[in-house]
Amino acid sequence: MAVKTLEDLFHETLKDIYYAEKKLVKTLPKMATKAASPELKAAIKAHLGETEAHVERLEKVFSVMGWKPVAKKCEALDGLLREADEVMAEIEDANTRDAAIIASAQTVEHYEIARYGTLVCWAGELDMSDAVSLLQMTLDEEHAADKKLSQLADPEVNQKAAA
Amino acid sequence: MAVKTLEDLFHETLKDIYYAEKKLVKTLPKMATKAASPELKAAIKAHLGETEAHVERLEKVFSVMGWKPVAKKCEALDGLLREADEVMAEIEDANTRDAAIIASAQTVEHYEIARYGTLVCWAGELDMSDAVSLLQMTLDEEHAADKKLSQLADPEVNQKAAA
Hints:
The structure is a homodimer. Chain A is mostly helical. Chain A contains six helices and no strands. The first copy, chain A, is elongated, with a radius of gyration of 17 Å.
C-alpha cells in the first residue's frame, strides 16, 4: 500500500502494532516459563491478559475505521524478540536471567509506548475520537507495565516484597 | 562471551548500546536530509551532536571498568532502522514523511531509554558510581530528545512555533 496521507500512515502503523501485539500473545507465555521469580512470572502472565485485550482493542479501531484487521510484519519487534530469545537461552543463573528478561520486556514495552503514543497523536489530528480513547487506554497500560517491570528490577523493592 | 553474572550482562548490554549509538551517528545525517521541516532537521542535527557525546561517554564507561570498547551487533536497533528506512523511502508527501520520521525517531529514542534505564539500574546494583553518573546523563538527554520530538509532532505546537 502506497502511503500518501497521514491517514494512510496511521493505517500502516496500526497494522504494524497489530502484528506486534499478536506476536506477543504467543511470546509472553514462553517468557513466563523462562522466568524464575514468582513475581516476574505473575507480572508477565498478567500482562499477557492485557495484551489479549490490546489485540481486541486494535480490532475495534480497524472496525471503527471500516478497515479489515490486517497484520504487517514488524521487523523492529522481530529484532527485539530475537535479542530477547538469545539472551534468555544463554544465561544459566536464574537471577541474572530474570534481570535479562525484565530488560528485554522493557525494550518491548518502550517500543509499544512509542508506537501507541504516535497513534494517539495522529488519531487526534485526524479527529478519530473513538480511536483516541481505545489507543490511549492501551498506552496507559503499557506505561503501567513498564513501571511494574522497573519495580521488579529494583532490588530494594524486591527485598521489601520478600520481607 | 558466556553471561554468568549481572556484571557480564551489564558488559554485554553496554556493547549492544555502543553499537546502537555508533550506528546512529551514521544514520542521523541521512534522516536529517530526508526531513522537510527546518525545525525537524535542526532537532535531528542537534541530537547528532548529543549522540556523538553518548559514544564518548560509553567509551568512558568501558574505560572505567577496564574493558576495551567493543560494539556488538544489535538486531533490535537494526530492525528499527530498517523500518525507518522503508517508511522514509516510500512516502512522497513532505508533511506525511516528516510525521513518519518523527515516529521512527521516537521508536529509536524509546529503545535507548529502555536500555539506558536498565544500565543505570544495574550499575547502581553493582556499585559502579562513575558509570551511574555517565549513563544517567545520557538517559536524561534521550528523554529530552523524545519530548522534543513529541512537541514537533504536535500540530498546535508547530502552529505556535510558526506564528
